[in-house]
Amino acid sequence: MKNILVTGGAGFIGSHVVRLFVNKYSNYNIINLDLLTYAGNLENIKDIESSNNYKFIKGDICDADFIEQLFKIEQITDVIHLAAESHVDRSISDPLSFVKTNVFGTVTLLNAAVKFWKQDLSNHIFYHVSTDEVYGSLREDGFFLETTPYDPQSPYSASKASSDHFVRAWANTYKLQVKISNCSNNYGPNQFPEKLLPLMINNIKNNKPLPVYGKGENIRDWLYVVDHARAIDDIFHKGTIGETYNVGGFNEWKNIDIVHLLCNLMDKKLGKSEGESAKLITYVTDRAGHDHRYAIDASKIKKELGWKPSLQFEEGMEKTVEWYLENPNWLEHVTSGSYKDYYKKTYLVN
Ligand code: NAD
Ligand code: TYD
């Protein structure tokens, strides 16, 4: 019997991880700890909220006393840590909140884990979910390997790189059994519309300009979120203690190309004439320090754990667009209130 603490389980990726574990492992108790910041939404996991092996707890990973109590009361055996501030643009305008949650919050969890598990560290896993952005920015060729030196370029990636270092330091110093994965850009249902694809879907729906940063030539490597959750499952269960796994789809797209693909798909789904949505594309001032290209070499996880993406990209995009169109209330709820202020401030529009 395991009592697994999943942090950030009301967010985008966390909600897919929680769903997979709750449905697949009836012998585990899944304790979902989330502060419900602007990015956390209990609607994301409504379908599993009454499952017997699931519990939601609202709380802050930075609150050491609360976290220690939680380990004790819930008899936590393992951690899958996803809670974070996750958006690069927000990290540029408010870097300290990234240091607090991503660095201080991670160390708070590491401390509690060592304190609570110290009698028998060998029976417990602390799994830290990280990003490929810690490796920095690539030019036109080459891939990020697990051995690529860290070279974070944004406040977000610097805070995630720092948290990765702390996790490894706790493995070395206190013998905590850790696993880390660094994944490429995720897309899919439940992603908050501050990130590229859901922001564009929402704007197309509302006939608003589609803000493409710079010349739209930056490249990202896209993976369907459920495939990331499957990778986390494989790494948690089969990955080697102390190892790092890169997760990605071998699926690189220039921003402008993926936006055109999305526009064409939206035209079809909304019954618009071909080329209608693409007319909304608007080039805007580039993001400060914008990383040019991310691309993951995911051979290690394929070779060692047999993981590979289950969906073709076109199929994943269809599913994603359909989900957003079939869930207008979800979009409505998350874009009311503070989203409007965020949008105005970031895109300098009224
Ligand atoms: P998200 O922003 O959608 O969700 C983050 C969740 O963490 C939210 O539910 C939020 O309420 C919660 N949270 C924030 N601060 C908290 C705190 N102090 N205490 C407790 N909960 C708190 O993020 P996401 O896109 O789902 O990313 C999840 C993790 O995966 C992050 O660690 C991120 O760095 C990593 N990651 C994301 C991507 C991606 O493409 N989105 C890719 C690779 C790695
Ligand atoms: P994003 O979804 O924020 O992920 P990340 O920056 O972590 O990779 O952005 C993906 C790419 O899309 C990135 O190159 C920035 C670009 N982008 C835009 O061009 N316009 C936008 O409005 C947003 C949010 C992103």
Keywords:
350 residues; Rossmann fold; three-stranded mixed sheet; binds nicotinamide-adenine-dinucleotide; binds thymidine-5'-diphosphate
CATH architecture of the domain at 2-188 and 223-250 and 292-311: 3-Layer(aba) Sandwich
What structural category do the secondary elements indicate? alpha/beta
CATH level 1 name of the domain at 2-188 and 223-250 and 292-311: Alpha Beta
Bound molecules: nicotinamide-adenine-dinucleotide, thymidine-5'-diphosphate
Question: What Rg, in angstroms, do the CA atoms define?
Answer: 20 Å
**pLDDT < 50 stretches:** none
- Count of individual beta strands: 12
Strands in their spatial order, largest beta sheet: 3-2-1-4-5-6-10
Q: List the secondary-structure elements in sequence, H or E.
A: EHEEHEHHEHEEHEEHEEHEHHHH
Helix content: 40-55%
User: Looking at CATH, which topology of the domain at 2-188 and 223-250 and 292-311 would you report?
Assistant: Rossmann fold
Q: CATH superfamily name of the domain at 2-188 and 223-250 and 292-311?
A: NAD(P)-binding Rossmann-like Domain
- Largest sheet entry: 7 strands, parallel
Distance between the termini: 53 Å
Instruction: Provide the β-strand percentage band.
Output: 15-25%
Nearest-integer average pLDDT: 98
**Number of contiguous helices:** 12
Coarse morphology: globular
